[in-house]
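Summary: Need help interpreting a holo structure output

Steps to reproduce:
1. Submit the protein chain below together with the SMILES for flavin mononucleotide.
2. Request a joint structure prediction with the ligand placed.
3. Inspect the structure token block that comes back.

Expected: a single structure record containing both the chain and the bound molecule.
Actual: see attached output.

Input attached:
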Amino acid sequence: MTEAVAVADDVVPLFKGAMRRLASAVGVVTAEGPDGVTGMAATSITSLTMDPPAVLVCVNRSASLHACLSQGCAFNINILSRHQRDISSAFGGAVARELRFTVGAWTPDHRGLAMLDDAQANLSCVVDAIWPYGTHSIVVGRVEAVRLTGEVAPLIYQDGTYL
Ligand SMILES: Cc1cc2nc3c(=O)[nH]c(=O)nc-3n(C[C@H](O)[C@H](O)[C@H](O)COP(=O)(O)O)c2cc1C
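--- attached output ---
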């Protein structure tokens, strides 16, 4: 049964409601920015192509990570495990930027970039393309290396909380 319909100017509240019904896996994107190491939680990570291996992630231009990505830096995508809610929360803004990497165990990857121990998967990426759209940039990352850990057990974000 349809409960609410909106068009044009009224669409934003219902759009938010629709997006709350879109369950998504959570990752933490990390990079070395002009002000040192930086990272943020992201649900906008999507597999893009296998040839070349590539992902996309949508990053708000206000995020500290954005300055680095817009300069074409290397970055890591750490796909969180079910038990890593605290890390998602910290990197989603609950913990100050300079303290975030005290949450969880982090090891430098082969490029020296922060890589999360016990993440389900770690993807070492470089920026291949970036397009502005509205408040965000759509970032294409070419995947140079992958590490898998343990079983498939993703952390899922839905309706403002975790499944
Ligand atoms: C579960 C979750 C998913 C998020 N997904 C995104 C995302 O895909 N893109 C984005 O720009 N911000 C996303 N955010 C918000 C950023 O993680 C948050 O604004 C972060 O604090 C930005 O980093 P900064 O504080 O270093 O600027 C998400 C937050 C949470 C909690």
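--- end attachment ---

Reviewer comment: Residues 26, 38, 40-44, 58-60, 63-64, 88, 91-93, 97, 157 surround flavin mononucleotide (CB under 6 Å). The helical segments are 11-20, 64-70, 85-94.
Status: needs-info
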